[in-house]
Amino acid sequence: MKAIFVMVKCELGQAYEVADRAIEVIEQVSEIYSTSGQYDLLIKSYLDADQDIGHFVTEKIQTLEGVRDTFTIITFKAFS
Q1: CATH classification at residue 17
Q2: Which of 36, 38, 59, 35 is nearest to 47 (CA)?
């Protein structure tokens, strides 16, 4: 499994609805945080090692109603 983080910019007033939809329909979503700044949400997802990150983001997250823009952060190693 690999972790990725996707920062999501939502349409005005849609952050909570986007978060609810993402949790409901995307099984790979682990956690969602509301954030301040340029982006409204930070979505943490775990993907199988062979799952294509680009397809996941463009087909699962960017197509959610209310999503305006995304910025994906790919992780390499977790430190605990």
Answers
A1: 3.30.70.920
A2: 59
